[in-house]
Amino acid sequence: MAAISIGPDPSLAYRPNLMEKESKDKEDYRNFESGSLIDRVFNTYKLMHTNQTLDFVKRKHSEWSGCSHSQMGMMEAIMSLDQLVDESDPDVDFPNSFHAFQTAEGIRKEHPDKDWFQLVGLIHDVGKIMALAGEPQWAVVGDTFPVGCQFQNSIVFRDTTFLENPDDKNPAVNSKYGIYEPNCGLDNVLMSWGHDEYLYRVMKFNNCKIPEEGLYMIRFHSFYPWHSHGDYMHLCNEKDLSMLPWVTEFNKFDLYTKTTDMPDVEKLKPYYQSLIDKYCPGVLKW
Ligand SMILES: [Fe+2]
Ligand SMILES: [Fe+2]
């Protein structure tokens, strides 16, 4: 994979004084109305909500699901995220590998007995390496939502960013259920293409032994309209509902461990490498 640098220069981006406050209150997170990063965030969503159509998502599935793009170990993939700053995220302006270790350590403190959960914290955003391979950020990062049915009001910037999405005006796909049956299960729903679904595919393709709860966290952690707004329940089946509490438990750590406190990555690496060796060892196909 070509290691190209995208987004702002990381050496500038993770200087702690970029953020006005050292620690944030809960209501300061996911503020999509104001803040120093808001223009960049809005532009990423505008492109995403214009271009993520049912056809586009199907194309991306066939492009990426064969995992024929590159081969590398999990730790190497995590560290390669240092070159990436997520342009959809109003809370993070430092490289993603720090976010990976912060999330994992947050989970480790509260769930010391669940090593698979800690590992999920570490790897949940690794699918963002698609951006390093040339995918635009609007097809990699940000909140996800189902395509092939009506875009619901719980989607961020719903009123202003879908105006040029052809699916929004197409009666075959813009009704409440669109192409889906009631309660068909999220496994049968095509989500906007991004790093959640991609990493889920990579885990399945490489036969990784992460428990089902962890796979749900990976696959749906960016589906905020569902796990944080209670929307799209009409597409969910029993299994989805039983997994939802795990996804919301994960979200706590994904969101509120984003601080300017930088973890000592080198010191933490041996422990997390042992979890990688247990659940997703060796060279993986991406
Ligand atoms: Fe993510
Ligand atoms: Fe994350």
Walkthrough of the structure:
It is found in: Cytoplasm. The chain is mainly α. The protein has one domain (36-285). The protein has 13 helices and two strands. It starts with 9 loop residues before the first helix and ends with a strand. Residues 1-22 have low confidence and may be disordered. One fe (ii) ion binds at residues 99, 124-125, 254.
Write down the overall mean pLDDT.
89
For the largest beta-sheet, the strand count, sense and barrel status come to:
2 strands, antiparallel
Helix fraction?
40-55%
**Would you tell me the structural class of the helices and strands?**
mainly alpha
Q: Secondary-structure element order, as H and E?
A: HHHEHHHHHHHHHHE
**Sequence stretches where pLDDT stays below 50 over 5 or more residues:** 1-22
Which kinds of small molecule does this entry bind, naming each only once?
fe (ii) ion
- The tally of domains stands at 1
Using the CA coordinates, give the radius of gyration. Answer: 18 Å
Number of strands: 2
Q: Quickly count the helices.
A: 13
Distance between the termini: 10 Å
The percent range for strand residues is: under 5%
Q: What is the global morphology?
A: globular
- Strand arrangement across the biggest beta sheet: 1-2
